[in-house]
Write a structure and sequence with these properties.
This protein is α+β, with helices and mostly antiparallel strands and about 220 residues long. Helix content is about 40%, strand content about 20%. The two termini are about 50 Å apart.
């Protein structure tokens, strides 16, 4: 739990309501997170991945009771991702054992249809035995400033969490970067370019990309 243990890898965002701002923020937050709560993988299905919101200190719960979700002006919760996949090496090993036993018992190797049927049965059996790999990523939401911190290092995972937040709470999640802050402040993007002092040389006042690199 990075929020509680002091790790510092996170991405910062601001949020804007896609519709009118909610009158009861806590009720809105609780209802939204529950609508996109984590649901375990159905082992009888073919799905290999499940993701959704859970309580910060109890990844097995998605009740989001007030005392477990709100801490002062913050809402603290987590995004849980489970993956359940039968290793190919395990499947091959079990199938080879079955094929050898089948050949010994029947005096011939199994036909393709027989092998495919056994593969499907083995996959279901191994899925029942497999333990899902679980990861939880913390999320902090300041209810006053409408800023969000996603405590994850993977850009792909951060993007997934942002999309989930937008879907659950009907908001726009916007990265807090120098470019986005300059845009909000009305600063021309060209003014963000490197200065001569920064790169340690004089920049020709009239230089352009075409002048520097020649014609394409």
């Amino acid at each position: 739990m990075p929020v509680l243990r002091g790790a510092v890898t996170f991405s910062r965002f601001r949020t804007e309501p896609a519709k009118d701002a909610p009158s009861d923020v806590k009720r809105w937050m609780t209802k939204g997170l529950k609508s996109h709560a984590f649901e375990p993988i159905d082992r009888r299905s073919e799905e290999e991945r499940a993701a959704g919101f859970v309580e910060l200190e109890n990844p097995e719960s998605s009740e989001f009771a007030t005392g477990n979700l709100f801490y002062g002006e913050y809402a603290l919760f987590a995004f849980r991702i489970d993956t359940l996949k039968v290793p190919a090496s395990m499947m091959k090993s079990e199938l080879d054992k079955w094929a050898a036993a089948f050949g010994k018992e029947n005096g011939r190797p199994p036909a393709r249809a027989e092998k495919n049927k056994q593969r499907a049965e083995l996959k279901q059996l191994l899925r029942q035995r497999a333990v899902p790999r679980t990861s939880t990523l913390d999320v902090t939401w300041n209810l006053k400033t409408h800023t969000v911190q996603v405590w994850a290092a993977s850009r792909k995972t951060v993007d997934e969490i942002c999309v989930a937040l937008e879907g659950a709470l009907a908001v726009k999640v916007i990265g807090i970067t120098p470019a986005s802050m300059a845009q909000r402040a009305g600063i021309d993007e060209k003014a963000l370019g490197p200065t001569a002092e920064l790169i340690g040389m004089d920049l020709p006042a009239t230089a352009s990309v075409e002048d520097t690199h020649g014609e394409a």
